Amino acid sequence: MRNRIKKYFLRKKLNIYNKNIDITFDSSFGNSENIIWHDNIYIGQKAYIWAIGGLEICENVIIGPRVTIHTSNHRYEDATMLPYDGCSYKKKVTIEKNVWIGDSVLIVPGVTIGEGSIVAMGSVVTKDIPKYSVVGGNPAKIIKQRNIEQYKKLDDNKMYYMKLKKENKVKWKFI
Fold this sequence. Notes:
Blueprint: H1 2-14, E1 21-23, E2 28-30, E3 35-37, E4 41-43, E5 48-50, E6 55-57, E7 62-63, E8 68-70, E9 72-74, E10 88-90, E11 93-95, E12 100-101, E13 106-107, E14 112-113, E15 118-119, E16 124-125, E17 133-136, E18 141-145, H2 148-156, H3 161-166
Parallel strand pairs: 1-4, 2-5, 3-6, 4-7, 5-8, 6-11, 7-12, 8-13, 11-14, 12-15, 13-16, 15-17
Antiparallel strand pairs: 9-10, 17-18
């Protein structure tokens, strides 16, 4: 019951009542007013999202547990103090539609994760990720491309996990 109350207040703070967005109660959000929320989004346990520079999470995005997203960074070049000064650069992060971000991923300010991409757990995303890519590592590098024909077929038929889950059409099985 206590977790449900925490989740209620988090949804209220984030102003996401009219969307199919599932966020665990123990996730943290800074500057949430700078987040653009689309529909059918899941954010896993203990996510840490600092959105001072702006963040857009497009539709049908799954963000795993312990993901960290930063949208600003301290100034160290031409700084007036060490190791950095009192200035920060704001850099928007964009997560395009149908992206899956695995457990414990770190996303640095200013990157775009392209449509349909998959980011393997434990990756550190330091550069833009092209559409339909599967990436992993530190720094994240392209491992392979998704099957674009299959991807487009699923997208055209609106086969979105969070949408289908809300409609009770997801049946779990282990293969």
